[in-house]
Amino acid sequence: MKKIAIIGSKDLGQQITHLIQNDSKTLEVVGFYDDFAEKGLSVKHVPILGKISDIETDFNNQIFDELIVAIGYQHFAFKRQVFEKFLGKIPFATYIHSSCIID
Questions:
Q1: Which of 26, 32, 60, 85 is deepest in the core (most CB within 10 A)?
Q2: How does pLDDT run across 25-40, given as a tens digit for each residue?
Q3: Cα Rg for the chain, rounded, in angstroms?
Q4: pLDDT tens for residues 93-103?
Q5: In degrees rounded to 5, what are phi and psi of residue 51?
Q6: What is the β-pairing status of strands 42-43 and 46-50?
């Protein structure tokens, strides 16, 4: 099972977590990274692992295997900046819900 960390613990991060927890047999959400939430607290029983600045260290310490950026479209420039920061350094997870039909 791949351990997934999610950047962003607000609505989008919570929705992605819910979908993975209730649908995937190969992914496990181990926590959130969020610059606006306190490390150690939980959001819907999923821990805040730290801030974005903690991600590379935690990846190197094998806290998680892959990353998902769950920053909404209202902050698209920041979302792109975060994505580019980790591109080529940390693998990004791909998740497709089982109810999706791809034609």
A1: 32
A2: 999 999 999 999 999 9
A3: 13
A4: 999 999 999 88
A5: -100, 170
A6: antiparallel
